[in-house]
Amino acid sequence: MPGMTDTTGAGAFRAAIESGDIPAAVALFRDDVEFLSPVVHRPYRGRDELHTILAAVFTVFEDFRYTHEYGGADGHVLEFEARVGDRGLQGVDILRAGEGGLAQLTVLVRPYSAATLLRERMGALLSG
């Protein structure tokens, strides 16, 4: 956004995701990154798990695009739209800054029907 100073690395994360460069996106996070899923209760920890999840998301989401961006000194929110099958989906990536890189990624999505389909498809990919 014009005039917004990105002190969190969110701009680099957005650019990496938009270009499909998952390794570059994951490299922006600390080794002990915490990923909070929209459909799984327990947090995922570490870059390896984050890489696996982001790679799976790239196969499940269609027509993914960031639509808005909001930021502050310790975090950033990237709003997005995508499709999962025939379901339109809105969501946000919440990036929290930390010492030595991004510390946490939380993803929230709506509506429930799209989140349910996301859970089913991600579960199939991650369990295989």
Could you outline the blueprint of secondary structure elements for this entry?
Layout: H1 10-18, H2 22-27, E1 29-36, E2 44-45, H3 47-60, E3 62-72, E4 75-84, E5 87-98, E6 101-110, H4 112-127
Parallel strand pairs: 1-6
Antiparallel strand pairs: 1-2, 3-4, 4-5, 5-6
Seen as an oligomer or otherwise, the chain set is single chain
Low-confidence stretches: none
Tally of helical runs: 4
The proportion of residues forming helix, as a percent range, comes to 25-40%
Structural description of this entry:
The protein has helices at 10-18, 22-27, 47-60, 112-127; strands spanning 29-36, 44-45, 62-72, 75-84, 87-98, 101-110. By secondary structure, the chain is an alpha+beta fold. It has one domain: Roll (Nuclear Transport Factor 2, Chain: A), CATH 3.10.450.50. α3 crosses α4 (112-127). The chain is globular and about 40 Å long.
